[in-house]
Design goal:
eight-stranded parallel barrel, 19 helices, 521 residues, binds acetamide, alpha/beta
Length: 521
């Protein structure tokens, strides 16, 4: 390893907590055996390793037998402390991967696969002790502005898991479409999943033009179960989002009686914030509880996201019913009506053993007792919530909005606006310096958000995700003190090249300088 830098010899993303370079290589040959020591869960992770490396090695490694010379051992050890951590030792004779749980082993396998990618069948000797900085390492995908079938969703989840991200926030409902089958309310998908047309060009351009093409689709409950299993196999938890009380035109198109005004309503084909929202009547709560009951059955994770963002209060202000409700419930203004709304849903979810997550607007009018806040309009909502003792997930537009441009709009595919180059994602520090240590513990992680108004194709979606998702993986996994953008670029570039070779579209412009330097030496 004479002149090699650690980041060149070990091209890992995310960079581990602690890494000790060692001399030499372990050569993975046809006689090498993969050994799983522990229960069935260790064996299942060992099978993941075998699947992942077979094509690159050119043979299918044997999975069997006992530890010894020329083995790669995956072992569970209950005495380790970090549930998602692992220890990896590679020397010339053998490889040992140890973790407290199968989840940790799975991340050790991702590391092994990345190490192997460098030199075909040689693993550079090393000792690694690794564990995530944050428990919540998320990616959000909007499948409502444009619908993506489950094959695409699975590919995204697979890529997340390889980067040691572990929460997929599935944005399932919007003004532009309802995307999940609810058996009690078939019109949600018969009517709410389809729009007549979609805006062409930028949302701000006038006059507005539409394509005249019907767009839509939804996931059957069987498909949802399939995706949940796929994610579970990769240690990814899914947080479903069912938006309320705003961004609800698809609901209102199907069930107009849930609005505060008579309608009619349409699933829309343009973007923005719409004034027609759900009315806080008993019928609405019954509807939402019935919907959420079906959703809860499908998703085993603890969190259910209920949106709460961008809900204009005009319809509530002009509704006699809402004005009466304010008096009855002693609610000062419409923000407090929204808090009343969210609190009722919070109580319902808590009664079913689930925890509510909402966008930071749920702070307005008072935070519901069990709510976790997703801070998107900057980090100030997250700071407020943490100071009130609530858990927080940081997703500010400034660093986490992957629908933003990565370069000059003139040179990029059409997008919503903004500017979020790779380096800005990488620089993100999820724990604001304003928080003291007790408050900071409430920042459970961070998340990249991908909204899809302008993303009609999977290749464009990939282009927005990569390589920025590499950076988000390091933001959420790697200790802040171990981060280094220049070194990251040198590790991420070969990873990006490999991704391209798999057929994934990657925004390679961030690596231009690194590539020029490499050519120069
Ligand atoms: C959001 O971007 N409206 C949460």
């Amino acid at each position: 390893m004479q002149n090699e830098q650690p980041f060149e010899r070990y091209p890992l993303v995310p960079w581990p907590r602690s890494i000790s370079p060692r001399e030499g290589y372990f050569v993975w040959n046809r006689a090498t055996r993969v050994v799983a020591a522990g229960d069935d869960s260790a064996r299942r992770v060992a099978a993941v390793l075998v699947e992942r490396v077979a094509a690159g090695l050119g043979f299918r490694p044997a999975l069997d037998g006992a530890a010894g010379e020329n083995t790669i051992v995956l072992r569970l050890d209950a005495d380790l402390t970090e549930a998602q951590g692992y220890r990896l030792r590679v020397d010339q004779n053998s490889v040992e991967l140890v973790a407290k749980t199968a989840h940790g082993l799975f991340y050790g396998v991702q590391t092994l696969v990345q190490l192997l990618a460098k030199a075909g069948s040689e693993l550079p000797a090393v000792e690694i002790e690794d564990a995530p900085r944050f428990a919540y390492r998320g990616l959000h995908l909007d499948v409502a502005r444009h619908f993506y079938p489950i094959a695409v969703v699975k590919r995204v989840i697979e890529q997340m898991a390889r980067l040691k991200l572990n929460v997929f926030h599935w944005h399932l409902t919007e003004d532009q479409g309802w995307r999940i089958e609810i058996k009690k309310y078939p019109r949600l998908t018969e009517v709410g999943a389809w729009r007549e047309q979609t805006l062409i060009g930028h949302g701000q351009a006038e006059p507005k033009r539409y394509d005249g093409v019907r767009h839509g689709g939804f996931y059957t409950q069987a498909e949802v179960r399939e995706v949940v299993q796929f994610a579970t196999d990769r240690f990814v938890t899914i947080v479903p989002e069912i938006e309320m009380p705003g961004h609800a035109l698809a609901i209102l198109a199907a069930y107009p009686e849930l609005g505060c005004s008579p309608g009619p309503f349409k699933v829309v084909g343009s973007w923005g914030i719409f004034e027609d929202i759900l009315c806080p009547r008993e019928e609405t709560f019954t509807f939402l509880e019935n919907v959420l009951s079906e959703v809860i059955e499908l998703f085993p994770g603890k969190y259910v996201h209920v949106g709460g963002d961008e809900a204009p209060k005009a319809r509530w202000k002009s509704s006699e019913f809402v004005q009466r409700l304010k008096v009855e419930q002693n609610l000062r203004d419409e923000d407090e009506v929204q808090s009343y709304f969210i609190r009722r849903i919070d109580r319902f979810l808590a009664s079913r053993g689930k925890a509510l997550v909402g966008w930071d607007e749920i702070l307005e009018g008072g935070l519901s007792p069990n709510a976790t806040v997703m801070s998107w309009r900057g980090v100030s909502g997250g700071i407020d919530a943490a100071r009130q003792g609530h858990d927080v997930i940081m997703t500010p537009t400034t660093h986490c909005y992957f629908d933003y441009y990565q370069g000059s709009p003139e040179l990029e595919p059409p997008g919503i606006g903004g500017f979020l180059p790779l380096e800005l994602v990488y620089e993100f520090e999820p724990v604001p310096s304003e928080l003291n240590a007790d408050e900071a513990r409430h920042v459970i992680g961070a998340q990249a958000n991908l909204w899809t108004e302008y993303l009609k194709q999977e290749s464009h979606l990939e282009y927005m995700l990569f390589p920025r998702l590499f950076a988000m993986s390091e933001v959420t996994w790697t200790p802040a003190a171990a981060k280094n953008y220049a070194a990251f670029l040198r590790r991420a570039e070969p990873a990006a090249v490999r991704l391209e070779a798999e057929g994934v579209r990657v925004a390679m412009r961030a690596f231009e300088e690194v590539r020029q330097q490499r050519r120069a030496v």
